[in-house]
Amino acid sequence: MPAKPPADWPVAVYPAKATAFRRDQNGNPCVRLYGRWRKLSAPAVCAMCRRTYFYAFGKQAGVACSKRCAAAFTSERNAASVGSANPHWKGGVSTDRMRYRRRQAEKNPEKERARRLTRAAILSGRLVQKPCEKCGEPKTQAHHDDYSQPLKVRWLCVIHHRQHHGGHATGRVERPAHLPGEAA
User: Fold this and answer.
1) Is 156 within 8 Å of 134 (Cβ atoms)?
2) How far apart are the C-alpha atoms of 62 and 104, rounded to whole Å?
3) Residue 31: phi, psi to the nearest 5?
4) Distances (CA, A) of 49 to 68, 73, 116
5) Quick one: angle between helices 109-124 and 97-107, nearest 10?
6) Cα–Cα–Cα angle for 168, 172, 178, nearest 5°?
């Protein structure tokens, strides 16, 4: 059973697990918690109920005097930061790649079927990955011109695959054979 603080101590909420109270040689209030004497903090004010409370030094200072107040504070704070009120809101854009892939698979089942069959054919050895047909780069991606023929693919490197789809060739820097001003 928790002990009661001495009558001359301020009216406040003290650590619930405190088994004894005393003052140290400097007159600072201390509590016995988990078999050790701990000096109490300066008084703090609970964010929910506005009562004064103390916490033991060495323990993390919170914003609430009890678990009940802490739970209420957390749920209130979380409710206030939903959707666009959340400081980390990105306008509904998710960085979760698996969710994006699943959504794309639902929107384009024919494309997903072709990708799945191509992957299976590569793993089984029926389809062999070849170098880029434009530059000879050995690291390539399979490009489908017609998704109804999943094993008829063109092998393109990342840069040429992006160019083929109308994007910019970023991701890899092409260094010329010699820089301007250098001898060839």
Assistant:
1) yes
2) 44
3) -130, 155
4) 10, 10, 58
5) 110
6) 110
Q: Are 30 and 16 in contact (CB under 8 A)?
A: no
- pTM of this prediction exceeds 0.70: no
Which of 68, 47, 61, 52 is CA-nearest to residue 13? 52
pLDDT digits (tens, 9 = 90+) for 29-77: 888 878 888 887 777 788 888 888 777 665 556 777 778 888 888 888 8
Query: Do residues 36 and 52 make contact, with C-beta atoms less than 8 angstroms apart?
Result: no
Strand partners, 141: 156
User: Where do the DSSP E strands lie in 74-145?
Assistant: 141-144
Whole-angstrom Cα distance, residue 15 to residue 33? 8
One-letter amino acid of 107: K
Q: Phi/psi of residue 121, each to 5°?
A: -65, -40
